[in-house]
Write a structure and sequence with these properties.
InterPro entries: Dabb, Dimeric_a/b-barrel, TAT_signal. It comes from Dyadobacter arcticus. This is Stress-response A/B barrel domain-containing protein. By secondary structure, the protein is an alpha+beta fold. The protein has one domain: Alpha-Beta Plaits (2-Layer Sandwich). The chain contains five helices and four strands. α1 runs antiparallel to α4. The chain starts with a helix and ends with a strand.
Length: 137
């Protein structure tokens, strides 16, 4: 999909999502569960310090999306157990109050600009989304 048409698709999807949400029609379960969006980004040139710095700059800009409650930008830890994956460049993890807030993030202009401005730097992105109770007893 061309970048321009992908961006238009994301914008339209966001508008459709927003149009479907109203205080009267919001499903209670969609507002109760904490939503975690965890992204692993693999640079095309993992040893290129300039590309790494540029992507890090973009991630710091992305952290300004207002629906994000907490964000963590990480690098692979110096751990070495057989179950640990360390081949990514950056880990981007952000917490949202609920899935609705995350859907707003997906179509927010800051997020769309991030994709447009920095996607040429990465070769692969893996996303793990999860939901769960806001408070565990």
């Amino acid at each position: 999909m061309k970048e321009k048409s992908r961006r238009k698709f994301l914008q339209n999807a966001g508008l459709a999502t927003l149009a479907s949400i109203s205080p009267l029609s919001t499903e209670p379960e969609r507002t109760k569960e904490l939503f975690i969006h965890h992204v692993y980004i693999y640079l095309k040139e993992p040893n290129n310090a300039q590309h790494e710095a540029k992507l890090l700059e973009g991630l710091h800009k992305l952290a300004n999306v207002p629906t994000i409650q907490y964000v963590h930008i990480g690098k692979p830890a110096e751990t070495s157990r057989s179950v640990i994956v360390r081949d990514y460049t950056f880990s981007w993890m952000c917490f949202f109050k609920n899935i609705i807030e995350e859907e707003i993030y997906q179509t927010h202009p800051i997020h769309l600009d991030f994709i447009k401005e920095y996607s040429d730097l990465w070769e692969k992105v893996i996303v793990y989304d999860s939901v769960g109770p806001k408070k565990v007893s």
